[in-house]
C-alpha cells in the first residue's frame, strides 16, 4: 500500500510539474517506474540523472524529469500519455548521455504500455564524458555546417544548418534540386545524433554512383525542448503554443532564399522537396500543402497526426492540389502494442489522411504510401525507407 501511495503522489508531482512549465504533460492512470539498479563503477552519486525522450521534446534533461535518489538508487515514475515512449538517460544534457562501454551511442530505449503498472530495472554501463574517446564522425566529406547560428527571425532564435552537396558539385556548373529536412542532428552523422542517423549522405552518394542522381540537402537542427512547438502549426492545450506556421515561414522566406543565393540550385517547386519524421512528418505535411507553390514533393514519415485534429480539416481545405507528390510511410509497430489488426494508430491516421486527400481531389497517382509491418518509430525505419522515398519523389 505504501508503494502505491508513493507512486500516486509522484505521478501527481510529475503531471503538476509538466503543467506548471506548460510542457509535455502525461495523461492516463497507467504508470511505469524506471529504477536504475546498476551504474558504472565510477559513477558520482552526487550527480543527478534525468530521463529524456519523445514525451518531453528530447530536451536532454528537464527538472521535472529528474530521477529521485534514495540509497544510491535512482527512480522515476512516468504515467502513460501514448502507447510507446522512446528515451535515454542523461546527467542533464546530451554531452552526458548514457552510452556503450566504448563510448559509442546506444539505440533509443523504448517502453510500451500494456495496461498495467510496472517497474522496469535499468542498467547503465557508461556515460558520455569529455574523457571518453568520441566516436568518429560518420558524415560524408561533402557534408558541412552552413551556419552554426543561423538567424530565424520568425521565431527570434538561432539554429545550426547543415548542408550536403552532391559528389560532383565542385566539378560541374550544374544546378541542383534541393531537399529540406528537419532534426538535422540525425540526418548525416552518428556523432551528432541523439537517436541514430538516417545516413542520408551515404544513401545519396550511392544513388549518385548508381544512377547519377544529384541533390543538395539542407538539414535544420531541431530546437531541443522547443521541438514539439516548432513542428506543430497548431496550439495544443497541454503542450503549448504551436510555432509551426512561423517555422514554415522561416524555411520559405528566410532559409530557402539564402540557400538559393549561396548554391547553384534549381529553385522551382518541381525541384524542391521537404522530408521529416514524427513531428517532422507533421510539419513537412503542413508545409508542403500550405506552400504548394514552393514545394513540389514531400516525404511524410511516421506523421504525428495525433498531435492535433486540426491537421485533418486543414488538409481537407488544401486537398485539391494537382502537382504535388507525397510519399507516406508508417510502421506497423509504431505504437508498441499494435491494434487495428496489427497496424498502429500512426498507420491508421495516415490511411485516413490519404483517403481524405483523395476525396478532396488530390490525384491518387501523386500519392505513394507504405506500411512496414515490423517498422517501429525510430531512425531505422526512416533510414531504410529514405532511398525508396527519394527515388519515387524524383521519379528515378
UniProtKB/TrEMBL annotation:
Highest taxon above the source species: Bacteria
InterPro entries (alphabetical): AB_hydrolase_fold (IPR029058), Esterase-like (IPR000801), Ig-like_fold (IPR013783), Mycobacterial_A85_antigen (IPR050583)
Cross-referenced PANTHER family: ENTEROCHELIN ESTERASE-RELATED (PTHR48098), FERRI-BACILLIBACTIN ESTERASE BESA (PTHR48098:SF6)
Name of this chain's protein: Alpha/beta hydrolase
Source organism: Mesoflavibacter zeaxanthinifaciens subsp. sabulilitoris
